[in-house]
Amino acid sequence: MSTFHGSPNFAHGQTETIGILLVNLGTPDAPTPKAVRRYLKEFLSDPRVVEVPRLLWWLILNGIILNLRPRRSAHAYAQVWTAEGSPLLVLTRRVAARLQQALDAARPAAAGRLLVEVGMTYGNPSLPVALHRLQAAGARRLLVLPLYPQYSGTTTAAIFDRVTRELTQWRWVPELRFVNGWHDHPRYLQALANSVRAHWATQGRQHLLFSFHSIPRRYLLEGDPYHCFCQATARGVATALGLAPQEWSVAFQSRIGRQEWLKPYTDIVLTDYAQQGPKGVTVICPGFSTDCLETLEEIAIRGQADFLAAGGESFSYVPALNDSDAHADLLAAVVLQHAAGWPEAAPDHDPQAARVAATEAQQRALALGAER
Asked: I need a surface site. Which of 85, 191, 217, 292 has the fewest CB within 10 A?
């Protein structure tokens, strides 16, 4: 039996493509304790996510967390689940479709040669499944595009680990490029600023709170650049909006456990604002490319309820960029920037002419070898 994964009866000369692997965190298959437990076990077993000695963490995870958390998390997922399924998965697929359209429009001569496929770091559709689909479509060059604008070892690097682990089992490994992030890309900052402006046009202008997913502070001290990238994003958007320092702030959400995480904590900031002012707050979560449990339930539902209950007067949430035109155009620009130099991504690429030229070059090489 073969050790490496290949293609049975492989047809040499197959048209080559660039595979764009669009990756998001992942989601349970259903808002039920059983499905959530399965998802959390995979997610929280990743040493990139929780850096604790493995035996100790196995005991904590399987003995405590997976017995208590799934039911509570399932209830939270049920608050945001749609008729189409998980918001994160539904929206990620829409983003992929819009990105494919943007790439086809930007490179019409290469339409069908830059193929977008969705994979999840945890859950379904899995990264191996997505990679095999791209392989079957002739992807000899692979661009991995994590949907995390701000790099972190807990998220972006976890994707790198899983993609490369899968590729070690392939017979023909594709050329590989990996996008680390775009926290300060001009199109990204402008898209966020425009999103806030459009929101304020209907909801009214208020103090702008940037809420990013948190990570343990120890990771920052050991070299993870995520905190710095979050601050840079917030500064860039605030500058684009022309905000004074007192008109905006940064906080971090979704912490778990007893260790110190990046501060200030969003829930505490919202409580302080509700009691002491500003009494009106607009929250945006720029670290999330698509809306999900952490934005819809934690911020838009629970965060708003807690803020108003603590004495706040006005709260609104700015949706993620999701499948907007601005987001698709931004991601297409990122893809084409990182795919530069690959023939399929060239503006005037003609696949048929490229194959003819390659065949002629091969024939010339063979003829030259025969003469020698």
From this structure: 85
In DSSP terms, 213 is beta-bridged to 253
Nearest of 283, 120, 26, 318 to residue 201 by alpha carbon: 318
CA distance 235 to 286: 12
**Distance, CA of 51 to CA of 45 (rounded, Å):** 10
Q: How far apart are CA 162 and CA 148, in angstroms?
A: 16
CA–CA separation, 2 and 242 (whole Å): 61
Query: What per-residue string of b and e applies to 141-172 under the rule 16 or more CB within 10 Å gives b?
Result: bbbbbbbbbbbbbbbbbbbbebbeebbeeeee
Using omega within 30 degrees of 0 as the cis cutoff, is the peptide bond preceding 47 cis? no
Q: Looking at the predicted structure, is the pLDDT value of residue 356 above 50?
A: no
Domains and CATH numbers, the chain: 17-31+81-181+324-352 (3.40.50.1400), 186-318 (3.40.50.1400)
Distance of alpha carbon 119 from alpha carbon 159, whole angstroms: 10
Task: Tell me the three state secondary structure of residue 217.
Answer: helix
pLDDT in tens, 307-342: 999 999 999 999 999 999 999 999 999 999 999 999
- Written as six digits, the tokens of 195 are 């999103």
pTM over 0.70: yes
Q: Where are the alpha helices (DSSP H) in 82-209?
A: 87-106, 127-136, 156-167, 186-203
